[in-house]
Write a structure and sequence with these properties.
The protein has helices at 6-23, 40-52, 56-69, 93-110, 113-131, 156-175, 181-196, 212-220, 226-240, 258-270, 274-284, 312-326; strands at 79-81, 84-87, 90-92, 143-145, 149-151, 241-242, 246-247, 255-257, 297-299, 304-305. The protein is mainly alpha-helical.
């Protein structure tokens, strides 16, 4: 694999940000791909990609779309399309909470106080919905079913993502002179449960431990840090990481995925494994296309890119990982350091 020059590298990343921007809809929605659905979590990931790429007006349009779609209870449905709601079966708590992460990332990048203030009520309502689903034992239930109500089980990856969003919500509250204590306390309880109460997760379905995200997300989101994070990475590295390619999505499937590899890069940086992060990112360069987009993944036993999709959220994950590695924006350390004030 040829290493791109520094100028080519910057050009490649500019093309990636442009790819997201070109797929953003007039109303601000960022679908997975042309004519695809928009889900709240991946939409917000796309907003962060736009922010890193300097498409600040596009990022603000993304927040406007979220605000317009927000339900009265503070949540969003699972997915939308150009006609409206594409999947109204549930609201997923980690999707809803991610609005705080996206907004705080935008502010750290831009110091745009007006946008932070404008969308704080949206975030405040979203986090109220999420915290209403926190169990007395600390975990946050994964979804509220439209017909059946709260689904009383929890996901390690989803709760880890919420842990980062609670940090972001507390930071926004502090910046705006609000009381962020409720977010800090919920985050403390949630982190303790992820670290010390594994029996509170996957109680009503098969364990998700075969998914790589369950392995590295607690590191990426600040739940597990320091030497414990390094030990966690070492314990399953050989199981999940395919040499010269990247991170498997699932331990028992011969499929590496670009987005999961990007997130593992962030976990490596958070655990002070910089050399491993650099190697992973270099391996990913083979998966970019000339228009700046990136394949979802690669089935290495068949030597096939699969599925035949180039999602905006994969492009955004690349930009977030590149920023963390090469310190391109003021938010470069957003997913590396715990930034709660």
């Amino acid at each position: 694999m040829n290493k791109p020059s520094s100028n080519q590298f910057r050009s490649n990343l500019t093309a990636t940000a442009d790819y997201i921007s070109n797929l953003q809809q007039a109303d601000g929605a960022i679908p997975w791909f042309a004519d695809g659905v928009t889900d709240p979590w991946d939409h917000i990931e796309g907003v962060m990609g736009l922010t890193i790429g300097g498409h600040f007006e596009g990022a603000k349009k993304g927040f406007a779309w979220l605000a317009k779609q927000q339900r009265d209870d503070g949540a969003w449905f699972a997915a939308y399309n150009s006609q409206g709601v594409a999947d109204g079966s549930r609201a997923e708590t980690n999707f809803v909470a991610y609005a705080a992460t996206g907004l705080w990332h935008y502010f750290v990048s831009t110091e745009d106080q007006d946008t932070l203030t404008k969308y704080w009520p949206m975030v405040e309502r979203a986090m109220a919905f999420v915290l209403a689903q926190q169990a007395p034992t600390g975990e946050i239930y994964w979804a509220v079913d439209t017909a059946k109500g709260t689904s009383e089980d929890a996901l390690v990856t989803g709760c880890s993502s919420i842990h980062k969003s609670l940090e972001a919500a507390a930071n926004i509250a502090d910046r705006l002179g609000k009381d962020g204590l409720v977010y800090r306390e919920a985050r403390r309880q949630l982190g303790d449960t992820i670290r010390n109460k594994p029996e509170r997760f996957d109680r009503t379905w098969e364990s998700k431990a075969r998914f790589s995200m369950d392995w590295f997300y607690p590191i990426l989101t600040g739940v597990i840090r320091g030497n414990a994070a390094r030990q966690r990475l070492d314990a399953r590295w050989a199981e999940f990481v395919e040499a010269d390619l990247g991170c498997r999505c699932v331990a028992d499937q011969p499929w590496v995925t670009v987005a999961e590899t990007c997130e593992l890069i962030l976990a490596c940086l958070a655990a002070e494994r910089h050399d491993a992060a650099v190697r992973l990112f270099k391996n990913l360069q083979q998966f970019q296309l000339t228009d700046g987009s990136w394949w979802t993944g690669y089935v290495f036993t068949d030597k096939v890119y699969w599925p035949d999709e180039r999602p905006t959220w994969t492009a955004a994950a690349i930009l977030i990982a590149a920023d963390a590695l090469y310190q391109m924006t003021p938010a470069a350390n957003f997913f590396i350091n715990v930034s709660e004030t």
